[in-house]
Amino acid sequence: MQTINLLLAGFQSAFELAAFITVVVGLLVGVIAGALPGISFVNAMAMALPFTYAMGATQAMLFLGGIYVGGVFGGSISAIMINVPGTPASLPSTWDGYAMTRKGQVKRALTIAVTASATGGLVSALMLTFLSAPFASFAMRFSQPEFFAATVLGLVSVIAIAKDKPIITLISLLIGMAIGTVGVDPLYGQARFSFGIPEVESGIRFVVVMIGLFAIGEVVDLVASNRDLRPKKTDGKPERVRLRDILAVKGAILRGTGIGCMIGVIPGAGATPGAVIAYGVEKQINPRGAEFGTGVEAGLAAPEAAKNATTGAAMVPLLTLGIPGSAATAIMLAAMMLQGVNPGPLLFIMDPSMVYTIFAAMIIANVLMIGAGFGVAQMFSTLMRTPPAILAAFIVVLSLIGAYGVRNNIFDVYVCLVFGVLGWAMKRVGFPSAPLVLGVILGPLAERYFLTAVANSRQDYSVFFTRPISATILFIAFVFVLWSLWPTLKSRIGRQPA
Amino acid sequence: MTPTVVLEYAKAGFAASAMIFSASIAAAQDYPQRPIEMVVTFGPGGGADLMGRQMARLMESSLGVSLPVSNVAGASGNAGLTRLRTNPADGYTVGTLISLTVASWASGLGDSKPEDFRIISVVQNSPSFLFVAANSPYQTAEALFEHAQSNPGQLTVATSGYGTQDDVTLKLLAKGGVQMENVPFQAPGERYASPIGGHTAVLYEEPGDVAQFLEAGQLKPLVVFSQERHPAFPDVPTAAELGHDISGLDNFRTIAVHADTPAEIVGILEDAVSGAVASPEWQDFCASTYSCIEPVTGDAAQTMITDFFQLVADQLNS
């Protein structure tokens, strides 16, 4: 009951003019950025981050939340219309979505995609609303050992999710953790890896790393690769889409939503694995699974629902534990910390109105997305005529201003440029950058929680295993590692002669 | 963007262009002619930030120019001090210098020394206390110290870190036979919550930072590390009364400039700070954080910083 009252109050603040406009602008920015190939919702959020410096904490979250929701969908517009996924998470949508476009069913494909995405996102936002508070009150029992265990789970799942290349992901994560140690250590106040340079003692802020890798790195790659992005002519007459076309794929939408909600909660997962897994599952379950890839509606609906269903779910660990599970939620964490707000179980007691305004805004954003999706799809061909060089120039300038604005330090601008070049190089050789950023964030958290926990137990290292909640979380982390290594182990064992 | 935000940007933009065009015509007799940058050496929201912003706002009226605040956080306040030291010594950059940063020099951080800065005025000062949760088994300092004496190292104290004045205080207590374990919490919120949540036995903190928990009755002060009892907590004994003469490790906050700043400019700034401190707004502000003092200026301020630095350095190296 209390949840409902708080949520109603949240809706009230979210419908205030300034707040509402913020959500709508964020949503539009997200859909447009998502639709532009080469600019994903993560890049868009990284670029938008500096704009939040001047906002309050709640408004900043509404803006970024809008971009997140819109951007995760936006990628599908270009996936369906020109066979180029605007963001990686929209890759599965090209398989059946573009096939439908080639059959002249572009409008039908877009309608199914936007409806499925909105449904997935809405269910996920509701789950966020009703699951977070109970989970946060459970997390009130957490002390330093439990937070350490939860951070370890976050680190482990980054690797476990990247099943295709766990070693490279691990290396990326470890590099990130090493970068996170630069600067003043959290307990002794000693400078580490500063090489005697005073500027380096200030440390490398993950916000700056993020802007460099995600905004500058990507945009350099966009210009360098010089892709032709104009929509190709499709033949076919205007078609009509009816409600029953959508009802026909409701099974696929619901299955996709369920999978997305589950995968989104896991730290380290995100929209892309959610969409890919949902596509795979739907292919097995659906009676027309064998025809997938030739323009089957269900093959488009399931991954669309799943990727937007990860959005709300991914915010559960962020808001309740202060542990971001993905690049997008890491940017939200940055925005909150820049405003002096520390997410975690205490936030639900200290500032419930902020939390529930965010919930309400996520629900509103998903409903409004239907309109925003169609609107941007209409103007898509115009959008594609913007020369990438002009876009890139804007983004680089905004990014550098953003890096400076974090703490008015010119050193951060140099750091941002270094990571921009690095980000481009990483993209070129296919080295994943998201684990690195998560390493920069989670590494120092893990260190801090570990050292304080050990000091508090008078140097007794067994504290992590003797406390029940901490032990349980660490056990889950252990199972995760086994599960991710299982395919490799199985093939090893299989090859051994019995 | 709200209109105020736009205005803030316009102000900042004006400040930036003014700095570029008039850098060459700065002279002591007509100081100040253009906006003065207030470098807050910590991020938004903390004690130093509140002080810097409040001071900047109150100094504007007497100086007749605006004082835009920039938060240059990092390295326990040393990142901002680097900026203060490397900008010209013309009085157009003032900064916050607080005890935590001075203590960090003693433990080897940064490359600043007390003589690199001219302290305009020490504007806030607060001794630290030991606090326990309201339902703690130790309701008096005697009971707490007695338990620590018979069970060395068993009680845990939440502090801000090793090598800080928190650490020095605990080391001095241990020398007097009261040995407790230092448990550093970097995040202030977690530190304040730890005794309330029962995760540590004691909290070492200045009262201003935990005012809300004191008003709510969740934390109880047991002992103050000061020469005299604190006027706001007349019932709380000093450590000296209990046989541990520990003082001079107070949390102070100052406004400082580059050491080479001309004396006339230091004088003008000193008057502005004194005027600000006398204002009712400032008195309300410092009362709410239990940190009001008579401003300490001139050589007395300089000596205060140097002595503090020496005390911490001696204790950490002993």
TrEMBL record, chain A:
The chain crosses the membrane at residues 17-40, 60-82, 109-133, 145-162, 167-184, 204-224, 316-341, 353-376, 388-404, 433-451, 463-486. It comes from the Bacteria. Residues 21-438 form the DUF112 domain. Keywords: Membrane, Transmembrane, Transmembrane helix. The keyword Transmembrane helix applies. Pfam families: TctA. PANTHER family: TRICARBOXYLIC TRANSPORT PROTEIN. This is DUF112 domain-containing protein.
